[in-house]
Design goal:
This protein is of the alpha/beta class and 691 residues long. Helices cover 33% and strands 17% of the residues. The chain is built from 23 helices and 30 strands. The longest helix is centred in the N-terminal third of the chain and has 21 residues, at 164-184.
Length: 691
């Protein structure tokens, strides 16, 4: 027998609309939107975002499952992930192209899967421009096309400036792609002209230095997009939707696209009569930390003013869609009720919970797994790995773990399970196991739930981690599972058919480092003024001066913890220094887009950062450090506390004792070995489904 995951009962929006009236709660959201011959059932959409599920340059079964789930969950409009319009425009090995007729059967299947749930879907056509890679596809290396010979700040590869023949070919390819979309029965096309990709480069004075008819004036910079729009209309006719995605502000000041220039561009595009809508975004590859802002950095709906200005220009000639870190339907309702946009995108919110619309429509907002902006999705994309969500391991695995896949156990199959540890592993395991019918108890030694998440939530701007904890705890309350906090568990006071050890891990205090594999510890690491990162955070949160007035942090993690601790301390006037053997601090936070936000704050606070250095030894209030590339070691003096942010070690003593006694025990999460939180939540879900 199958049931739904612990997120609560998943009821399709179509059924909800028959039994309750969502317009009573969100009257402007649940007002149909008519664009030409197309009617959207309401005003919440999911913008195009890359999943990297492609196979052999086309969509895959994983794509179909992914979009079907979000259509089932109630979205009114889905925009398919970027589909390259030309072989020169691809930018990921697992990306998809739209120019070959082999894509048509896949598009047809996608349309059928989405339309079954009264949802519309558009194909987003793009070319990467300078943001691609000329050697990505092993048997098809070719130069990158760009508006001008200006390399990307990310790829740093020099492109070739397109000549007229290239431009004519590109226009023809866009038309060919559009014909495939038309044949497949998708509802329309969004042309990607944002984020400093190829067409966005043409629009931007920062990246378009051409002297011909495609450069210079705003009219000239819009020309290639008008040619593409005209070619597409010639193929698909007037009834299929056609729109543009635009960066309304590149956040480059007067050298880039400014809001004033965007107003002129939108006037030109609106006057052409080619486009039905404008999908308003911001930023580009030079500042992706704006376009996909992480937690604690931008307010919800931070691009609303851009949409308001775009709508004023477009008037009745085109509709305005808006993105901008929308997390809850209430904020989208505010934007729509003010008339600032016609449709609101909640993209990462749908990655975290595909049923956010259906749940909210029924008044079950407390069952929504709210996006927290951890940006594991973005980090994996940048690393060229399949995209998933930290909180939602079913993302990309909908066939295995999506709604309706969780089996319900018979009375004879149900077990009494005791879970030791209230971190992400224990909480997720408890909820999924209880959803299946197991009798679950959970114990936590500390007063607070969350484990590593709680540690992070205590740092500046990291309140989103408390939301992540709440997302894990709320399902337990609905299931009648009450965590037992401040409860120390030993082998003598725990029972159950199965004992699950989710006891986590602790920061290592020895100073062992793979950068110095010949030694097991840093000499002097056992001195009393040396502490591990976890204890340092706990003490500093309780008393910002507890670590003294001069703190040295040794960071090998590349994670947010040492940066957050430094910010917490420096805000209270503590002198903070960070050293790392890595090329720069916060390597992991660069991929999650946190580093460009926190680094300026650390610099402004006077935090001294020294990369490519390590500790040779520790003496009383002294750290002897050295440049890893050579040179004599030198001291940092008068240190009150040295904080070691190194490796973590499993807290597996309880598990080992239980096994030694021959009891049925299972270990999950960091107690196996410390890993990223998304891996821990995935593992907990997997194991909880297997018992």
């Amino acid at each position: 027998m199958k049931s739904t995951p612990f997120y609560g009962n998943i009821i399709p929006l179509a059924y909800i609309e028959q039994t309750v009236n969502p317009t009573n709660r969100y009257p402007h959201i649940f007002r149909p939107l008519n664009i030409g011959a197309t009617t959207f059932r309401h005003r919440i959409m999911v913008t195009g975002h890359t999943q990297l599920y492609g196979e052999n340059g086309t969509l895959s079964e994983r794509h179909i499952d992914y979009y079907r789930e979000r259509a089932k969950g109630g979205a009114a409009l889905l925009v398919l992930e970027q589909q390259a319009a030309h072989p020169a425009g691809r930018n990921y090995h697992a990306g998809c192209g739209a120019w070959d007729t082999s894509v048509v059967p896949w598009y047809k299947r996608l349309a059928e899967a989405v339309h079954e749930h009264e949802c519309k879907i558009l194909a987003q056509l793009f070319c990467a421009g300078a943001q691609g890679s000329s050697t990505q596809y092993f048997d098809d290396w070719q130069p990158l096309w760009a508006a001008s010979r200006i390399p990307s700040a990310v790829t740093e590869e020099m492109p070739v400036a397109m000549d007229q023949a290239n431009i004519d070919e590109l226009v023809q390819y866009f038309a060919r792609c559009a014909d495939n979309v038309r044949q497949a029965g998708l509802d329309g096309i969004e042309v990607h002209a944002a984020h400093s990709q190829l067409l966005g480069e043409f629009l931007s004075p920062a990246f378009n230095k051409r002297k011909d008819q495609y450069g210079g004036s705003i009219e000239n910079r819009c020309r290639i997009i008008l040619e593409i729009g005209s070619a597409i209309r010639d193929v698909v006719g007037p009834d299929i939707l056609l729109g543009l995605r635009l960066s309304f502000d590149e956040y480059l000041g007067p050298i880039g696209i400014t809001p004033e220039q965007s107003e002129q561009q939108i006037e030109i595009f609106s006057a052409s009569g080619l486009f039905d809508f404008f999908d308003i975004s911001g930023g580009g590859y030079h500042n992706l930390h704006v376009a996909v802002a992480p937690m604690g950095t931008v307010p919800e709906g931070f691009l609303v003013d851009c949409a308001r200005r775009a709508k004023k220009v477009a008037g009745d000639r085109a509709k305005i869609f808006i993105v901008g870190r929308f997390l809850e339907l209430s904020k989208a309702e505010d934007v729509l009720s003010a008339g600032d946009a016609d449709m609101v995108a909640m993209t990462r919110a749908h990655m975290s919970d595909p049923f956010i619309v259906a749940k909210s429509a029924e008044g079950r907002e407390d069952e929504v797994t709210r996006c927290v902006g951890a940006n594991v999705c973005v980090s994996r994309l940048i690393s060229n790995r399949e995209v998933t969500c930290m909180q939602n391991p079913a993302m990309g695995r909908e066939k295995l773990w999506g709604a309706g896949t969780l089996d319900t156990l018979s009375a004879g199959q149900q077990r009494h399970i005791s879970i030791v540890g209230g971190g992400p592993a224990g909480l997720r395991f408890a909820a999924t196991a209880a959803s299946r019918g197991h009798h679950v108890r959970i114990f936590e030694a500390r007063a607070e739930l969350g484990g590593r998440m709680y540690e992070l939530a205590s740092l500046p701007t990291r309140e989103g981690w408390q939301t992540a904890i709440d997302n894990l705890v709320r399902p337990l309350k609905r299931l009648g599972v009450e965590p037992n906090c401040k409860t120390t568990i030993t082998a003598n006071n725990i029972d159950g058919d199965i004992i699950v050890c989710a006891t986590g891990s602790s920061w290592d205090r020895s100073g062992y480092s793979p950068y110095r594999p010949e030694r097991l510890e840093i000499p002097g690491a056992n001195l009393p003024f040396v502490v591990d990162l976890g204890h340092a955070i706990k003490r500093a949160v309780a008393d910002k001066t507890a670590l003294g007035q001069h703190v040295l942090i040794l960071d090998e993690t590349g994670e947010y913890h040492p940066l957050g601790l430094a910010e917490l301390l420096s805000a209270s006037g503590v002198k903070v220094e960070i050293i790392t053997p890595r090329p720069f601090i916060g390597a992991e936070t660069q991929r999650t887009m946190d580093l460009p936000h926190v680094m300026p704050r650390l610099k402004a606070a006077g935090v001294k950062i020294t990369a490519q250095h390590f500790v040779e030894r520790i003496e009383h209030r002294i750290a002897i450090i050295y440049d890893i590339w050579g040179g004599e070691p030198y001291p940092i003096n008068d240190i009150d506390t040295i904080v070691l942010g190194m490796t973590r070690s499993p807290d597996d003593a309880l598990y080992r004792q239980l096994v030694a006694e021959g009891r049925t025990a299972l270990k999950i999460g960091d107690v196996i070995t410390p890993r990223p939180i998304e891996a821990i939540i995935y593992e907990a879900e997997k194991f909880a489904r297997s018992i």
